[in-house]
From TrEMBL:
Species for this entry: Luteimonas terrae
SUPFAM superfamilies named among the record's database cross-references: Ada DNA repair protein, N-terminal domain (N-Ada 10) (SSF57884), DNA-glycosylase (SSF48150), Homeodomain-like (SSF46689), TATA-box binding protein-like (SSF55945)
Name of the featured protein: DNA-3-methyladenine glycosylase II
Compositionally skewed regions (Basic residues) per UniProt: 507-516
Gene3D superfamilies found in the cross-reference section: DNA Methylphosphotriester Repair Domain (3.40.10.10), DNA-3-methyladenine glycosylase AlkA, N-terminal domain (3.30.310.20), Helix-hairpin-Helix base-excision DNA repair enzymes (C-terminal) (1.10.1670.10), Homeodomain-like (1.10.10.60), Hypothetical protein, domain 2 (1.10.340.30)
Matching InterPro entries: Ada-like_dom_sf, Ada_DNA_repair_Zn-bd, AlkA_N, AlkA_N_sf, Alkylbase_DNA_Glycosylase/TA, Alkylbase_DNA_glycsylse_CS, DNA_glycosylase, HhH-GPD_domain
Domain of life: Bacteria
């Protein structure tokens, strides 16, 4: 077995393993030479002798060294190491693309080309930083996802193989057997509890997590007929008109007197096996489940203005969106108007142009999908209450997406993404940064032209200009997006959003009055 990459402090790992310290869950894995198994540091099994232990920074590195996952502590349920959730870092962008299936049907050279880097250099970066090559990371992630489906659901093995990205059951069985020393059906010996027609999955996160704040943000923007948010959960229609489904996200409940795990409960209805990974990926991004709140807070707390906000709301995350085009349309409609007004206008648009849903979904409150770019590119917006410049911008976005001039490609840097979007008529820096923040969940996106940020940061009634705000926020990198939401939350808690500003210029470059 090859030696593992160096960890920062093996003595800390040893102490965390022996004390089963949950703070280190997902930050390293413990591999045992005598058993060939790797575990989470919180594994309840008897602790092995120190001489038999090897530490690895992630599951892929442990599996690359020939170890297989523990069936008791289930490494697939550990929270993600948020140290690589850094937006523009090459490894971070590569991991986002791998999560999105970039290596499912394409070679490593294609992934490297999308990142504008050589294949050999990309492999070297992965091995140096993660302890495993990109192909190994990809293989481990889809096998652990398959293991979760096999363990938690009654999904047929054939569907599990498809959901994990395998084109054939035979190939899946062979790869699973080789990696885990058992056939997939071995995990099916324990009967699964029936959940009706729902598929229920546990999505782990690193605490603290402020779910009420996340739901509160989404509730104020929920579109009737598409999504619904109550005090404990978020519900949304997904899929296409020909085969719609829906999902519900809420806290994972406590059981048998134990406290609830650090996880959300994802309930999926009518989601095809081939779309499961995409649905999980979207929910994880939407609810920002891969962040490391302690590391982010430690960095931002150096700013005296942010420190008390971070203490007040330690689990605040970046609320992203289900679909990039939907967020872009919302951003344009929300320019210079209140959140409530933007929601009303967007609801009218989606009701008129969104594909109708079967009556069977009416019981869940679903009536239509959000319109596609094709549905809006030449649509008649008359009577919706949108001004001409907004209509032109929405049509322009739809056409640019169809033609490939803009996209939501996670391989792009923030600067590249923003530059492409501001090239469109009606899209200024505020709108482009807002789209990056909520469509990509980019942790460093920063709409410096936002009036709420300019007025809230000083905290003394004064207002900073956009350049002053950018200069002040420079030391917040690479987590400026989290500072944005802390300041927005502070502003909304202290006073209502300011009144709308005058109508912006055609390129929509004037400062915005409130976050949409």
């Amino acid at each position: 077995m090859p030696p593992p990459p160096a960890l920062s402090d093996t003595a800390v790992c040893e102490q965390a393993r022996l004390s089963r310290d949950a703070r280190f869950d997902g930050l390293f894995f413990t591999a045992v030479r005598t058993t060939g198994i790797y575990c989470r540091p919180v594994c309840p099994a008897p602790a092995p002798k120190p001489g038999n232990v090897v530490y690895y920074p992630n599951a892929a590195a442990a599996e690359a060294a020939g170890f297989r996952p523990c069936l008791r502590c289930r490494p697939e349920l550990s929270p993600v190491d948020g140290s690589w959730h850094r937006g523009d870092d090459i490894v971070a962008r590569a991991l986002a693309l791998i999560d999105a299936g970039a290596l499912d049907d394409a070679p490593l050279s294609a992934l490297a080309a999308r990142l504008h880097i050589g294949e050999r250099q990309l492999r070297r970066l992965f091995v140096e930083r993660l302890g495993a090559a990109p192909i190994g990371v990809h293989g481990t992630r889809r096998l652990l996802f398959a293991k979760q489906l096999l363990t938690e659901t009654a999904l047929p093995v054939t569907d599990v193989a498809m959901a994990a990205g395998f084109n054939s059951l035979r190939r899946f069985n062979a790869v699973f057997q080789q990696a885990y020393r058992m056939p997939p059906r071995e995990l099916r010996r324990t009967p699964r509890e029936s959940t009706g027609d729902a598929l229920v999955l546990r999505l782990a996160y690193r605490p603290p997590y402020d779910l009420p704040a996340m739901l509160d943000f989404l509730r104020g923007r929920a579109l009737p007929g598409i999504e619904h948010v109550d005090e404990t959960s978020y519900t949304r229609v997904i899929g296409e008109a020909a085969a719609p489904g829906w999902l519900r996200v809420g806290a994972w409940p406590a059981s048998r007197g134990d406290s609830a795990p650090d996880a959300l409960r994802l309930e999926l209805h009518g989601c095809a096996a081939s779309h499961l990974q995409d649905a999980v990926r979207r929910v994880r991004r939407m609810f920002d489940l891969d962040a490391d709140p302690d590391a982010i807070a430690a960095h931002l707390a150096a700013d005296a203005r942010l420190a008390p906000l971070l203490r007040r709301r330690p689990g605040l995350r970046l609320p992203s969106g289900w679909d990039g085009f939907e967020i872009a349309v919302r951003a344009v409609i929300g320019q210079q108007v209140s959140v409530a007004a933007a929601r009303t206008l967007t609801a009218r648009l989606s009701q008129r142009f969104g594909a109708r849903l079967p009556d069977a979904l009416a019981a869940q409150g679903f009536a239509h999908l959000f319109p596609t770019p094709e549905a809006l590119v030449d649509a008649d917006f008359d009577g919706l209450g949108l001004i001409g410049s907004r209509i032109a911008t929405i049509r322009g976005i739809a056409r640019a997406l169809i033609e490939g001039r803009v996209d939501f490609d996670r391989s792009r840097t923030l600067d590249d993404f923003v530059a492409r979007w501001v090239a469109l008529p009606g899209i200024g820096p505020w709108t482009a940064q807002y789209i990056a923040l909520r469509a990509l969940g980019h942790p460093d996106a920063f709409p410096a032209e936002d009036l709420v940020l300019q007025k809230t940061l000083p905290g003394d009634g004064s207002r900073l200009g956009a350049r002053q705000l950018l200069a002040h926020a420079e030391h917040w990198r690479p987590w400026r997006g989290y500072a944005v939401f802390h300041l927005w939350r502070e502003a909304s808690a202290s006073a209502p959003a300011p009144a709308s500003s005058p109508t912006p210029s055609p390129r929509a470059r004037r400062p915005r009055s409130s976050p949409t």
